[in-house]
Structure formats: C-alpha cells, structure tokens
C-alpha cells in the first residue's frame, strides 16, 4: 500500500494493524508531502523528520510484535501551542524559543495511543485571530484557494489535513479557532467540552475559554483522534465524564429538535451574515428536515454574553505576554490586548467567571425545547491573505467580528460544538456550519454530524493538487 491522501485516520490505523503498510512508509510519504507543500501552503512551523522516522521504526517493531493501540504508527500533527518534548513552543511568536522537556498531556496521550507526531503546525500569535499569518513564519495558505487564508488560529493544522499532508491533527479553540479553520477548509472540527482534552501544563488556557480539539476530513476520523487525546492530568481543574466519541459515530441520533440560529450573538460591533453563507446553512437545515428532524428558526438567549468573554480573553493574553521571552517582538495588537487584560484582570474578570453559571442556567434552559443548535460557523467566506495582517487593533476587531461572530459564545460556556462542511461559495471557497449542544453532548453532536456526512459525502471533495504544491508564496 502506498500513501493515498484520501486515506483517513481510521483507514490508516486499520492498514497498519493489518500489516498492509508500515509506519515508516507512511511517515516517509507524509514528510515528503509536507516538504513539497511547505513552500506553497506553509502549514508547519516545525517538521520533526528525524524524530518522526525514529518513532515510526519503533512503531513498526511494536506492530511486528503484535502490539495494538488505537493509532499505532499513524502520522499526525499538533498545533504549535502544544508542548512536544525536545521542541520549542513558540505559539506564533518571533524569537528563538528553548526546547521543552516534557510533552503536554494531550500529546502524551496521543503518543500512548501510538501516534507519530510529524510536526507542529503554524498558528497566529497566541492564537488571537482568524488568520494564520505573521512575521514569525509568513502566511499559511488555504489549499482550496491559496490567495485566501485557511483561517485561524489552528490554520496550519487545518491546511495540513485539508491538503492530505496528515490524516488528522490537533488544534485549539478559544473563540472558534478549530471550528473557523475547519469551516474554511472543508473539514470536520470538534471543539469538545472544556477539560475533555487536557490543556496541561496549563490547568486552564486563557481563563478557561480555550480547549484542545480535533480536525479531520470525516466525523469518524475526528472522533477517533478525540478518543485518543481525551483524558486528564491529575491536577486538571475540569474533568468531564468520559464519552466514547467513536461509538457515537455509528449510532442513529434519533429524531431531534433543531434550532436554526442565524442571528449573530450580541456584539458591540456590527456583524451581518453574508447571503451566500446563509444559503448554504439553510440548505443544511433543509437536509436535516428531510432526514426527519424538526427544524425551526430560534436563537439561544445569549444576552450580553460578550461582556463575559472580553475579560477572560484579554486576561489570558496578558498572562501569555508576561511569560513571553521576547515581549518587544510581539505584535502591537497583542501588547494592547495585554494592557486591556491587565485592567480587566481583577473585579471584571472575577465577575465574568461568576457569570458563567448564570449563562449555563439561562442558555441551558433553551435545551429543554431543542436538542441541538445549527448555526453558521462564520458570517463570511475566508478572507484574502493579508487582509487583516496590518490592521490596527480596533480595525482588526471590526474585521474579526464581521467575519466570525458566531463561534465564541460556546467558549464562554465550555460546551461542545462541531463544525461540518456546508459547501462552497464564490471562487470555490468552503464554508461551514456548527452543531452546538449543552454540556457533554459530544455523542449526540457526532451522531448527527455522521448522519449528515453519510448523506452529503463531503469527504469525497478534495482541493486541487496543484494548489498544494505549486501555489506562489508572497
């Protein structure tokens, strides 16, 4: 068996267990595709070629000895905000960072499942923006149209999976940073329940709004990676009850009550759902109705939830800036956000944290009438490369809210959400929709996403191969 970019995580793991391909062959071919695309897509900050080949050889020895673990020998990637022993964690920042001594808990669990970490993917500075660009590494490009961003902040992971460089990857999501790039690269992106995948060595990341999640081409692949990475460090403050995501993929979701939520949550700045994106989301709603679900337009009672997001987000940035070894090299927008976080880090932050319980009760009550929310993941298709890179802080905020007003409330709540591909608009640009649920609802969301996937077969569409290896770098 030679490497086939259409082979997903489940299929690759099965082929390795069956002995129809070796881990070394898979990893070599994955590394070759990464190298061929790095000058065009620029998905990776670090490529672990020598280490990955050594890990592949060790996996092959285990496979030959009859050892079987869920991902034994499978190449995957992780975002460069996660610690991988022996590698730096720059998190999108400029400067030379020291290698870390230990794997983060999520990476440790991937290794325990047998995965081979081929590299660390690009992300914008401290994961703040819905684009993956910056002076530290250049611009990461969208395999579907290299003139456009794959989104952010997990844009490198999304580009790598969409282009078939790896079958799946980990990202992180603090305001949609898994779901937005999944939407803009035609992928399934799971933002799990807070604590489902540990963020250790941080018990909480960005005051609890950021969680680790998975990106893959199919629901089954994203669920398998979630199962492999899920679990907690003994000191984690959030420890949700275990779920079996992979088992949920094969389960009939039953007939559900679906709220189609097209109105953006309250923001201080204007946001408008683009008609072409609205049309794709409404088509998904119609497909759900045809599958027997009850679908009606209804918006969760968000209220002024944004007032609780800003103190947590900016205080989280302030924490990162205080730890940064090269603060003078940080983007001016980062430093401005950190100053605001310093001002909001006392009473406003404590009030924002306390408000979460009130929001849980109010928005949780919505789920007595509905089982699932279907909402746009973004209000617009992916912007062009460079569109937000040089903007001022206020202009960046306006552009972000205009493009991405829908994802962040679920980060405040800490509840699960799954992006599913919704089709294409304009110049072949992907857009997506979110399936959102209450606490610990990953199994329900995944079973519904899998039902949609069986109907729509979105994983059969691929970006043009020439865009992966031939696109120009600005």
UniProtKB/TrEMBL annotation:
Name assigned to this protein: Amidase
Cleaved signal peptide residues: none
Transmembrane segment boundaries: none
Family: Belongs to the amidase family.
First-level EC class: hydrolase
Domain Amidase, chain residue ranges per copy: 26-446
Species this chain originates from: Streptomyces pseudovenezuelae
Entry keywords, A to Z: Hydrolase
Matches recorded under PROSITE patterns: AMIDASES (PS00571)
UniProt cross-references to SUPFAM superfamilies, sorted A to Z: Amidase signature (AS) enzymes
Pfam families listed in its UniProt record: Amidase (PF01425)
Gene Ontology molecular function, alphabetical: amidase activity
EC number assigned by the record: 3.5.1.4
């Amino acid at each position: 068996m030679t490497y086939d970019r259409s082979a997903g995580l489940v299929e690759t793991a099965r082929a390795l267990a069956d002995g129809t391909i070796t881990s070394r062959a898979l990893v070599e071919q994955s590394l070759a595709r990464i190298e061929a695309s790095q000058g065009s897509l620029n998905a990776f900050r670090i490529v672990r070629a020598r280490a990955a080949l050594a890990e592949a050889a060790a996996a092959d020895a285990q496979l030959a000895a009859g050892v079987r673990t869920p991902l034994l020998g499978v190449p995957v990637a992780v975002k460069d905000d996660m610690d991988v022993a022996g590698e730096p964690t720059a998190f999108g920042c400029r400067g030379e960072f020291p290698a870390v001594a230990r794997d983060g808990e999520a990476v440790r669990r991937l290794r325990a499942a047998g995965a081979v970490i081929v590299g660390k993917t690009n992300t914008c500075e401290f994961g703040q923006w819905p684009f993956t660009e910056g002076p530290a590494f250049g611009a990461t490009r969208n395999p579907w149209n290299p003139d456009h961003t794959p989104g952010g902040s997990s844009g490198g992971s999304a580009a790598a999976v969409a282009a078939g460089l790896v079958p799946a990857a980990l990202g992180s999501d603090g305001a949609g940073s898994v779901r937005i790039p999944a939407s803009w690269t035609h992928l399934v992106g799971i933002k799990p329940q807070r604590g489902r995948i540990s963020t250790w060595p941080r018990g909480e990341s960005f005051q609890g709004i950021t969680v680790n999640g998975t990106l893959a081409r199919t629901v089954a692949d994203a669920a398998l990676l979630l199962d492999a990475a899920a679990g907690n460090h003994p000191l984690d403050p959030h420890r949700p009850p275990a779920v079996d995501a992979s088992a949920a993929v094969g389960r009939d979701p039953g007939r559900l009550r679906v709220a189609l939520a097209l109105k953006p949550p309250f923001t201080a700045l204007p946001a408008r759902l683009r008609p072409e994106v609205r049309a794709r989301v409404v088509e998904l709603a119609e497909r759900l109705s045809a599958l027997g679900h009850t679908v009606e337009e209804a918006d969760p009672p968000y209220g002024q939830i944004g007032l609780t997001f800003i103190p947590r987000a900016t205080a989280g940035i302030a924490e990162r800036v205080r730890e940064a070894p090269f603060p003078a090299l940080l983007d001016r927008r980062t430093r401005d956000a950190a100053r605001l976080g310093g001002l909001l880090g006392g009473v406003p932050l404590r009030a924002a944290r306390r408000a979460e319980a009130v929001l849980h009760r109010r928005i949780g009550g919505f789920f007595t009438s509905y089982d699932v929310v279907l909402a746009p993941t973004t209000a617009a298709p992916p912007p062009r490369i460079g569109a937000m890179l040089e903007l001022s802080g206020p202009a960046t905020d306006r552009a972000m809210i205009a493009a991405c007003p829908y994802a962040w409330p679920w980060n405040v709540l800490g509840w699960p959400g799954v992006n599913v591909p919704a089709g294409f608009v304009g110049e072949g640009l992907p857009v997506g929709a979110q399936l959102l649920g209450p606490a610990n609802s990953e199994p329900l969301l995944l079973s519904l996403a899998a039902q949609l996937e069986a109907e729509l077969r979105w994983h059969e569409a691929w970006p043009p191969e020439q865009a992966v290896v031939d696109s120009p770098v600005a």
